[in-house]
Design brief:
This protein is of the alpha/beta class. Helix content is 36%, strand content 21%. Helix 5 (128-138) packs antiparallel against helix 6. The longest helix has 26 residues, at 47-72. GO terms for molecular function: nucleoside triphosphate diphosphatase activity.
């Protein structure tokens, strides 16, 4: 797909390969700046509240990093001047200064996702043993993904996020398949060890109530909607 010609730049605040793939499939060019936060340090009772809080924290971390980088490389055309250390301060103080007013609008996308199984929230497995148990639980049963997308317009301070839920139903997954997937190690890097697009797992997915891109971490329709709202005045 050819890149979209858009009047704004995009920063993806995520190290997720699947999110990079999806955003590229949507036709956007973007840069990547990861958010280094202690995800375990943020707890919420409801999964929807948790993924939104984590997306907010990631945005704050990326913005702080941008501020630091900009102080070092002021004037680089790919660096946006951020006049605050946190998103809360941005909402209060942007736009400020001639550079920011003239700067090319930039959208920051941050996301988070958890898996919900029998009412319990599951994040990335802490070990192969836990990943193996997760997959055995899903076998012949079902789980849900709850994911968030947060868009912050770094020029105007506009910020909005929403969450999306998808239900996934599985056939029985043979133990040997589970073992192969676990030994690969990739399931350790995804919420709940749930990776339905994996060629070994995909044949055992009975039904997806929602979109596959959402399960993979970046719902296309929701992302487009939030980006449109964030750039409505451009």
């Amino acid at each position: 797909m050819e890149a979209n010609t858009s009047p704004f730049k995009i920063i993806l605040g995520s190290s997720s390969k699947s999110r990079r793939t999806i955003l590229a499939e949507m036709g956007y060019e973007f840069t990547i700046l990861t958010a280094d936060i202690d995800e375990k340090g943020i707890r919420k009772e409801k999964p929807e509240d948790l993924v939104m809080a984590l997306a907010e924290a990631k945005a704050d971390a990326v913005i702080s990093k941008l501020h630091t980088v900009n102080n070092q490389v002021r004037g680089d055309e790919q660096t946006i001047l951020i006049s605050a250390d946190t998103a809360e301060a941005i909402l209060q103080r942007l736009p400020i200064g001639d550079y920011v007013k003239d700067a090319e609008p930039t959208l920051l996308l941050t996301c988070d996702q958890v898996v919900v199984y029998e009412g319990a929230v599951r994040e990335k497995p802490s070990s192969k043993e836990e990943a193996r148990q997760f997959l055995k639980d899903y076998s012949g049963g079902h789980a849900a993904t709850v994911g968030s997308v947060l868009v912050t317009n770094l020029k105007t301070g506009f910020r909005k996020g929403e969450w999306d839920r998808v239900e996934i139903y599985f056939q029985e997954i043979p133990d040997e398949i589970i073992e192969k997937v676990v030994e690969e190690g990739i399931v350790l890097n995804v919420a709940g060890g749930l990776i339905i697009e994996h060629p070994l797992i995909l044949p055992f997915v009975k039904q997806v109530v929602g979109t596959t891109d959402s399960v993979m971490g970046l719902p296309k329709a929701l992302t487009e909607k939030l980006m449109r709202e964030a750039t409505a005045d451009i």
